Amino acid sequence: MFNKLTAMPADPILGLLTKYREDPHSQKVDLGVGVYKDESGHTPILSCVKKAEKFRLDTESTKVYIGPTGSADFNRLMSELAFGTDHPALLANRVRTVSTPGGTGALRVAADFIKRCNPNATLWVSDPTWANHTGLFEAAGINVKTYPYYDYDSKSLKFDEMKAALASISADDVVLLHACCHNPSGMDLTNEQWDEIIAISVNQGFTPLIDMAYQGFGDGVDEDAYGVRNMAAAVETMVLCSSCSKNFGLYRERIGACTIIGKDAARADIAFSVLLYVVRCIYSMPPAHGAAIVETILGSETLKQEWLAELKEMRERINGNRAMLVAKLKEKGVQQNFDFIAEQKGMFSFLGITSTQVAELQEHYSVYMVDSSRISIAGIGNGNVDYLAESIAKVIC
Ligand code: PMP
């Protein structure tokens, strides 16, 4: 039966990484893969993670099944991190959370859950959005459409068009919003813009699904949750998909959370039973190790403070890299305005150059980025920013 298959296209980012690794150029630069890197280009294990991991290894006494919800402590601490401890939806007992295999697992659980809520629901995603969103939801049989979001010409939000599109979406549908650090554009909603989107969501009655893969990478843990918290306080139903891959540096441990908010406690319980059924039908139970690390950190005041400090260091390095690249491009005589890079947030921005220029950067200067000119900001450092800015200048001037 396999003989009838035709090959799927290879993942463009993984292909880029292979080419980068094979490139012998001594000054090669990788701006492809979206993982945090330190100044030396390494993705470190956070020191709070090492400590929590040691504690768990010393005290863990069983590997027995954890159950489809995962760890109750992890779930509670994650929803408090997202919403804040005194959020009205938490106080009203309307919030239910399951641990999931990464943010991707949370999204897939959300997709199957939505399909059970309304088999005809359309999921609306920003144009552009994280490449995996569309495939993930379509794999669950959900129709995916886009709403206007990023203006490649003006390097800003198409906010009026976005509002107009959302204002025509029905209560049967779901709208996916990025909590912060929009992937791939780095272009976030301001708090005032969130307020307007929240008002439209309430008015239209659709269910917002917020993807929060980078809490703490933009402006801070609480600041980045502005949209999540205010949306959750305003709407009747909501879905939140969180990831611990970036902010805890737990990428390969595969840990995240899927949270649903019901209209009241009784309806949240019913929805939760459906969510648990969905989990059982996909992977039965989530992995426990990453959740154990996160709950140890968030449950200890000392480790939590250490985590917040390490997260701040990662955030400040990324924001610093943004400002540094803009300054270096000016220094190398580039006339084109790249100030938007310093204003955008998170791991990514579009450089805004053509695919021919992207290819030229790769071929002649060994600077690697995806065709769309999305760059991973963490790949920049003091050691390569001069070479990078010079290479960009040569290609675009
Ligand atoms: N959502 C977005 C917007 C992302 O960028 C990512 C990771 N690249 C995810 C979800 C999934 O994260 P995870 O690695 O935890 O599955």
TrEMBL record:
- Keyword vocabulary terms for this entry: Aminotransferase, Pyridoxal phosphate, Transferase
UniProt keyword Transferase present: yes
Q: What is its EC number?
A: 2.6.1.-
InterPro entries the record matches = Aminotransferase_I/II_large (IPR004839), Asp_trans (IPR000796), NHTrfase_class1_PyrdxlP-BS (IPR004838), PyrdxlP-dep_Trfase (IPR015424), PyrdxlP-dep_Trfase_major (IPR015421), PyrdxlP-dep_Trfase_small (IPR015422)
Question: Which CDD domains would you find in this protein's record?
Answer: AAT_like (cd00609)
Q: Do you know which Pfam families this protein is assigned to?
A: Aminotran_1_2
Q: Where is the Aminotransferase class I/classII large domain?
A: 27-392
Q: Which GO terms describe its biological process?
A: L-phenylalanine biosynthetic process from chorismate via phenylpyruvate
Listed cofactors: pyridoxal 5'-phosphate
Read off the Gene3D superfamilies from this record: Aspartate Aminotransferase, domain 1 (3.90.1150.10), Type I PLP-dependent aspartate aminotransferase-like (Major domain) (3.40.640.10)
- Could you name the Gene Ontology cellular component terms for this entry? cytosol
What class does this enzyme belong to in the EC scheme? transferase
Q: Name one GO molecular function term.
A: L-aspartate:2-oxoglutarate aminotransferase activity
Family classification: Belongs to the class-I pyridoxal-phosphate-dependent aminotransferase family.
Q: How does it assemble?
A: Homodimer.
Instruction: Note the NCBIfam families from the entry.
Output: PRK09257.1
Q: What is this protein called?
A: Aminotransferase
Q: According to the entry, what is the taxonomic lineage of the organism?
A: Bacteria, Pseudomonadati, Pseudomonadota, Gammaproteobacteria, Alteromonadales
